[in-house]
Specification:
By secondary structure, the chain is an alpha/beta fold. It has one domain: Ribonuclease Z/Hydroxyacylglutathione hydrolase-like (Metallo-beta-lactamase, Chain A), CATH 3.60.15. It is built from 7 helices and 14 strands. The relative contact order is 0.17.
Length: 260
């Protein structure tokens, strides 16, 4: 069975030149998070908004969920006016509360009806739309309920999404059981924070999991072909062969054994 990982955005919160906010789409119908640029990213890829069946939410920082009201508004008034296309959201009770607050702030009186049609999954593991998921805590600002995900299909396709996090043993153990990890590298080496991966962390992880692909997202790096003044950096660290610097639009297909 064919599966696709499509990176619709690969930038961190500061939107390095040439990148939308970090945003992953699986099989063109399951998304991880709903960043502010989500609607633009889906439009750019030609994916109908009403085709989205599942949203896996990693945490509720703005660059990961502030696009949600726009996705819901589009479904309600453009692509699913009859509200017949099912939508499942996987996340904690806090996720549901915050997304409702966002909808009320953005479009009071416009989203109540469609919000009530959402299927909410608060469990930390289960099966949603043919994908078995595990949700686990990661190392990030505790107030935004940070989690990573491991997903596996009955076909054998599997992946990990780190969300935002620094080095985290639970995350690394999930990666060791997986063929690919979509992992953030949100800050350069000199930033004094342990709640994001830095290049040195990626270097160490790549040596720990030499047989797992690491696809870097949520990056601080401008695209190399940017014509604008450098925002933070355009100097790409050199990593082992199992590490790839993702870019907006990169696509990987499952060949029955691996992602290529």
């Amino acid at each position: 069975m064919a599966h696709e990982i499509l990176m619709l955005g690969t930038g961190n919160a500061f939107l390095p030149h040439g990148r939308h906010h970090s945003f992953c789409c699986i099989d063109r119908k399951h998304i991880i998070d709903a960043p502010p640029t989500a609607l633009a990213s889906l439009r750019r890829a030609g994916i109908p908004i009403s085709d989205i069946e599942t949203i896996f939410v990693t945490h509720v920082h703005g660059d990961h969920v502030f696009g949600f009201p726009f996705l819901l508004l589009e479904r309600r008034y453009i692509s699913d006016r009859e509200m017949v296309k099912p939508l499942t959201i996987v996340g904690s009770k806090l996720v549901k509360e915050r997304l409702w607050q966002l909808c009320q702030l953005a479009y009071p009186g416009s989203l109540e009806e469609i919000f009530q049609t959402i299927n909410w999954v608060e469990e930390s593991s289960g099966i949603v739309n043919e994908w078995t998921f595990e949700r686990f805590k990661v190392l990030h600002d505790a107030s935004v309920d940070p989690h990573g995900y491991r997903l596996e299909h009955s076909s054998g396709a599997n992946l990990v999404h780190s969300g935002d996090t620094g080095p985290c043993e639970m995350l690394y153990q999930a990666i060791e059981r997986s063929r690919i990890a979509i992992i953030e590298m949100g800050i350069p080496e000199w930033v004094p924070s342990e709640e994001h991966h830095k290049p040195s962390h990626i270097e160490s992880l790549s040596q720990r999991v030499p047989d797992t692909k690491l696809l870097l997202t949520h990056t601080f790096l401008d695209m190399e072909d940017s014509e604008f003044e450098v925002l933070m950096s355009n100097q790409y660290p050199i990593f082992p062969n199992n590490v790839t610097h993702a870019y907006d639009g990169i696509s990987l297909l499952w060949d029955g054994n691996n992602w290529n």
